[in-house]
Fold this protein.
Amino acid sequence: MKKIRFMDTSLRDGFQSVFGARALTDDFIPAVESAVDAGIEHMEAGGGARFQALFMYCGESAFDMMDRFRAAAGPAASLQTLARGINVVALSAQPKDMIDLHARMFKKHGMTHIRNFDALNDVRNLIYSGQCIADAGLHHQVSVTMMELPPGCTGAHDAPFYIKTLREILDSGLPYDSICFKDASGTSNPKKFYDTIKAARALLGDDVIIWAHTHETAGVGITQYKAAIEAGCDGVDLARSPLSGGTCQPDILSLWHALKGTEYTLDIDVAKVMQANRVLQDCLQDYFFPPESQRISSEVILSPMPGGALTANTMMMRDTGTLDLYPKVIEAMSECVARGGFGTSVTPVSQFYFQQAYANVTQGPWKKITDGYGKMVLGYFGRTPVAPDPEIVRLAEAQLGKPMFTGDPLDVLEPGIPKAKKILEKEGLPVTDENIFIVGALETPGGNKGLDFLKGKKPINVRKVSAQTEKAAPVAASPSTPAMTGPADYTVTVEGKAYQVTVEATTGEVKKVQPAATGKAVNAVDVKVKLQGIVYEIFVAVGDRVHQGDTLMVLEAMKMETPVVAPCDGTVASIEVEKDQVVKPEQLVATIS
């Protein structure tokens, strides 16, 4: 009887798939220890969105978290992280020096395995990153990414396409220790899984380890795994309750049960796994579980949304008050996939699809080509599996002001370490490898969230639920709910009239109410926003001279930064919002006189 290997993904992919990667280390360390007690030897411990989310939402360093994970797991456990080719764990494509630093830092902080994938299945994006992983002494699991295409689409994402990609990996000479077929949306039909892995086994021979990854989002995860196992797969990704099923990986006990009576088995102690489940459930008893993470979403078969992105996006929509738009956005996403060149719907491409669908719903179909989606169809992240729709390419070139790019993305990226060092030195911060990587990996067009973290901005935006009240309870200050240490002033609008309200922090007593000054000058030009979002950065102050087209502030929604620009030349007369404030369409944010 063949024993099927498995990796417990509860504490990385599970966190991403249910909480948008927002989980505090103090809360889950007992769950690491319980996994070891249950005999689980291989766990996913970080990477992917669990890198940036710790800095942005948990007030923690991902490197500190990995150190604590290793200490709790002990020296013998295999600890694996997720990397996105040339993006590694960053918010954008990284230059070679940062890709190499990523591998060395993750090795330093206790990791043993890295699964490496490219959402476009452009093998060029895997070669250098894979070499760095191998050079660091880590197990390199190279991946082929999978999904189901929207109805009527052909030309990629079938078994021949995946085997063609595998041949390109083998021909490239990149070093690898195992191969993974990764379906982040859980939408590939089981027959395609079987045909792909059967052909891969014939190509690779019997000695190469083949792994399969999927989610239960569409309700076919166990069936996919059975097909993969029957075709010759050696290992799969599984999870523990309550971070299994739904948008997460299939459950350990469910696959153990499904394999009964076959020639395959999971080598587990069922009673110990059940005890580990109870520990994990206790750890997370105060966390808010979004209902969409707990159920099957058959619509993703038509619009392949990964489990790890689905709830991350709905969490952000909750933050900005736009969750009601989700059904329209997921429906619009199908067209974005169909016209975008068939990149696999996995980070970062899944976010590009969702951002473009969000823009199509909120601003009109294709009125705005979002930055990520536009750069993808123009080739700046690599080659898409098929050519994107020519009309979309034309719109992207016009709106982004960029031509089609056919080169290697790594060739146009400037070294990142010297730039990060200068930033740290300028800010008087320690120039360590960790800090260099944090600053380099978390830079965005509107700012640098890694630098914000190192300078002391450590917001915690983790949704928890009180067992007594069943109301959301922030665990600490967040961007939208700052901690009150003294009297606080608020502007409250009642029937169109604004009032300034002072509230005593300790008692919550209203101490003063007076009309709020708008600060608007006579004949000033209003600056209003077109979409809902959070004010990420404000670049001007009252009295500053600005020119038409200058960026006044940046809004953030769906991990997408949108500049708010000056409509005319003039002087900033008022700023009507604050950093981290949620704003709605047509809201006044500034005036110019």
Summary: Residues 485 and 523 are 39 Å apart (CA to CA).
